[in-house]
Amino acid sequence: MAIVVITLLFGACKYDFILPEEIPDPNDPNTDEVKFSEQVLPIFTNNNNCTACHDTGGQIPDLTAGNAYNAINNTRYLNSVNPEQSRIYTVAHPDTDGHKQKKYTATQAAVILTWIKQGAKNN
What we know:
- The chain has about 120 residues and is an all-alpha fold.
- The protein has one domain.
- It is built from 5 helices and no strands.
- Helix 2 packs across helix 5 (about 105-115).
- The chain is elongated.
- The N and C termini lie far apart (about 65 Å).
């Protein structure tokens, strides 16, 4: 009987913990450099997240893989003086009502803001 009880105590329960997303701090100067091609572009293109509407010939800006950087690299979408006011960040931000379709997750918004604060490089 003791063996059964010990077996049930140590072998019956299994927990798979779901860890929360780690949100980068855009104001931390020690944050690793955000790479456009590896971290920002997939926000737009994975699962047609943005490219379902923002594709070549569709809604501007064109956020397809070959055109996204050039399409958003202007003062209409990027504000280097006040990155928090950049349209590429604010329009689909999770806390805004400005975009009725898909929105960024909090992590995606932080990645985009960090990228802008780091100079919005085509890297």
